[in-house]
Amino acid sequence: MRLGTRTWHGTRQSIREAKNRVREIDGLLQSLYEDKVAGEVTADLFKRMSKKYGDEQSRLITDAGHLEKELDECRRVQRDLTAWINRIKECLTIDSLTRAIVVELIDRIEVSEIYSVDGEKNLDISIRYKFKCQE
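-> structure tokens emitted (135 positions)
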């Protein structure tokens, strides 16, 4: 996620500006075509200008798409973090462990086969929580 260096507002503004420019280029291309048909623009100039506008438009569409995906990912992460924080807040006030709490927090509990070490019976218990801590 690269959005950390850029504000959400700035990213939304960049997306809006790119989309507005794409619409503007549509109008410019239409005017250019009309000028060519009217004989006011040579075929060579029309070709160069339409390629230039087309390249810019393609780049803007691609850039806006990347920014929108980035913004969507940031929104998803924010929702996930908010949900996780709310879950943790609820856990801070737990007075007793209930089945509902276990189902909410624990993904699975793994219990190993019984094995002997120096004549003593042992088993391993591993608890997999539904949230992951990132380091």
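Helices lie at 8-37, 43-92, 99-105.
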